[in-house]
Amino acid sequence: MPPENVEVAGLREHERLLKGQLQRQELLLQRLQYWDQPADTNQARVNQSQDREYTDCSQLFTSGFKSSGFYRIKSSRVYCDMSEGGGWTVIQRRVNGTETFNRSWVEYKDGFGDMNAESGEFWLGNDNLHHITAQGNYSLRIHLEDFEGGQRYAEYKNFRVADEKDHYRLAFGAYAGTAGDALSGSFQVGVSEWASHQGMKFSTYDRDNDNYKGNCAQEDEGGWWFNKCHSANLNGLYYPSGHYSAVTDNGVVWYTWRGWWYSLKTSVMKLRPTDFKIDTADDPNAVNRGPPS
Ligand SMILES: [Ca+2]
C-alpha cells in the first residue's frame, strides 16, 4: 500500500472511532435528559423534537402534542394540561396533601414537589413563573374543587410574576369565572386594602415581604403573595376535609367561594398566552359534529 493510502486508511479508522464515540455520547446525553422520566409518561417527551425550544405548553399543543403529560420547555420540565382547549402550562397542583407547601424561599424559587406522577403535587418555581410570564401576555386559570364535589374556576388576564430582585411581585388583570375574584379582594369595600394580592411581593416563612407586622407565610404555613394577609392562599396548609378551625386562616383558601374557614380539596393553577386561539378541531374535549348526512 502506498504511504498516502495508509494515511487515508488511518484517518478513516480514526473517523469511525470518533463517530462511534459521538454516538455513545449522544445516547448518554439523551439518557441523562430522560433519567427522571417514569416509563408511562415517556412517550410524549421522547417524540418531542430535540432541536426546538418551546416557550410553553401552548406551543407544544399547536405543534401537535395533544396529550396531557410532562414535556420540556426551555430549560425546565413542565406538566402540560391539554384539556380545556389545550396548551396550559401547570404551575401549581394540590390534590391530596401529599406534599408540604410550607417551604423556604429557595424551594419556592426553584420549585418543589412531585414532577413525575400524573397527578403529583408541585410548585413549578418562581423563577419559572417569571420566565414564562415575561415572554408575553399570559392568562392564569385556577381550577378549584371542594370536598362536596363542587367545581369552580377563576381566570385572570395579564398574569405576570416579576424577577427575584423584585421579590417575584404579582400583577394580574381582569377577572372572569365562577369562583369569585378573591385575588383582588374587591368583593367587599375596605377589604382590598389588606386582602388584595395585586402588586404584592412573594413571601415565605424565611423571607417576610408582606404588609403585616407579623409574618403571614409563617402563620399561614405556605409561600404566597401575602398582603395583610390574604383573601386567597392556595399554597396554605392542606386539610383532609373542608371545614377547619385553627388559630389563623391557614387552609387552602379561596375566600369568595368557600370563605376563610374552608380548605379546598383541589387547586390547579395554569398559564396560557391570552391570545391563544382554540381551534375546535384541535380541542380533544370538543364534541365532534360531522356534516349532516
Ligand atoms: Ca411582615
Automatic annotation (TrEMBL):
Function: Immune suppressive molecule that inhibits antigen-specific T-cell activation by acting as a major ligand of LAG3. Responsible for LAG3 T-cell inhibitory function. Binds LAG3 independently from MHC class II (MHC-II). Secreted by, and promotes growth of, hepatocytes.
InterPro entries for the chain: FIB_ANG-like, Fibrinogen-like_C, Fibrinogen_a/b/g_C_1, Fibrinogen_a/b/g_C_dom, Fibrinogen_CS
Subcellular localization(s) per the UniProt record: Secreted
Name of the protein this chain belongs to: Fibrinogen-like protein 1
Native source species: Scophthalmus maximus (Turbot)
Family annotation (PROSITE patterns): FIBRINOGEN_C_1, FIBRINOGEN_C_2
Residue stretches making up the Fibrinogen C-terminal domain: 48-275
GO-annotated molecular function: extracellular matrix structural constituent; protein-macromolecule adaptor activity
UniProt xrefs under Gene3D superfamilies: Gamma Fibrinogen, chain A, domain 1 (3.90.215.10)
Keyword Iron attached: no
Transmembrane segments: none
A biological-process GO annotation: adaptive immune response
Keywords, comma-separated and alphabetical: Adaptive immunity, Coiled coil, Disulfide bond, Immunity, Secreted, Signal
Transferase in keyword set: no
